[in-house]
Specification:
Elements lengths: L7 H32 L8 H15 L1
Length: 63
């Protein structure tokens, strides 16, 4: 999608969508950490796929 200069309404809409997605990812991360901590008798970060997901989320949050 090509944006024209001065299309602030559309830019604000995209910014709001990005903020909502970031909030949702943060909530999902918190839920995942809480669930795995309660349901696992081991540290889920010792498994490769949860660690990879966690690292990807951290990298994404840092931008």
């Amino acid at each position: 999608m090509v944006q024209t200069p001065g299309n602030y309404g559309s830019a604000w809409g995209h910014l709001e969508t990005a903020r909502l997605l970031a909030d949702e990812a943060e909530h999902a991360e918190a839920l995942w950490k809480e669930t795995t901590a309660e349901d696992c008798s081991f540290d889920p970060m010792t498994m490769s796929w949860p660690r990879d997901v966690w690292l990807a989320l951290e990298e994404w949050r840092r931008g």
